[in-house]
Amino acid sequence: MVMKNSLNTLLNAPTCAQLRTIRRNINEECEDKLRHNERHMQQWISYQRHFPQKIDAKLVRNVLRANKHVLDRTKRKLEQQLAARHIYPEFFQNRSPFSQEIEQAMSVVNIAYMPSMTQNGERIAVFSLNRFEAAQFNSVHVIKLVLMIFDLVLSSEHIYAGDIAIFDGAHFSAAHVAQYLGPHFNTIMTILKEAYSIRLKEIHVINAPSLLVNMLAIIKPLLHPNLRRSIHIHENPSQILDIFGAQNLPSNYGGQLRTLRKMATDWYDAVSDHADWFQAQESVQISTVPQKTRSQLHSPDQMGLEGSFRQLNID
């Protein structure tokens, strides 16, 4: 299934300087190394009887790059991503952009990648609420949409060094937070950590209500030190303008780009344009999940985290 050109209008290619930085960052010094490792991966895949017959070469390439050409880790991550599609159908099946749940998610949240990369070759994604009623917010459907957009980015022909997330906490209530920390929270975290080779460089939180600040204060000590250091909470939203520049931000945040809602709508149109591709991807999963892989993708009941959240004094 061929990807459509609508992605090329949303994501700019890296400049020559960015490309050099990206290749150095992902341990890809030359094209020969990429071709050699891709051939190695394709040969290895051909011996995996539980793998699907057709795996998008771009998926393999992006997993390889995300794991900096470390082959053993690339094999493990690829298998875990294909296994997650088998184990967690609530996130990876019925991904029609025209389904009621995805259309609802599109109306409730704004999710958009900015067209250009940072100087270091990272892509910036911005997330905010579009509709503020907590009753309209379903964390499973929203994460499903997030993963669909991320899958499109991974399938782009443009190489990049990693992701930077900007999360606008304006209008988030206790009910919204409870949705995120509900029964699917551990599953979502497991999928992001084990199934996707996400190179999340930084997380910037703006307009955070006190509830969200308190929640992050509880969660941060439980995180890996690298992830903990990557989270930045800004008291003044204009600080992200100083960090990323007006050329990389929507006009909502003082940037030179269009409003976040208009940019999100373009991304949702791209998702809709690839409806056939998403349908084809539903069959790209392993037929049987090895026990070791299943245990790595098992989301334990981390009641300590949810218990800590319950101790917050929620007004």
From TrEMBL:
Any single GO CC term annotated in Swiss-Prot or TrEMBL for this entry: membrane
Superkingdom of origin organism: Eukaryota
Residue ranges of every copy of the CRAL-TRIO domain listed in the record: 101-261
Molecular-function annotations in GO: phosphatidylinositol bisphosphate binding
Gene3D superfamilies: CRAL-TRIO lipid binding domain (3.40.525.10)
UniProt xrefs under InterPro entries: CRAL-TRIO_dom, CRAL-TRIO_dom_sf
Name the UniProt record assigns to this protein: CRAL-TRIO domain-containing protein
Organism: Dendroctonus ponderosae (Mountain pine beetle)
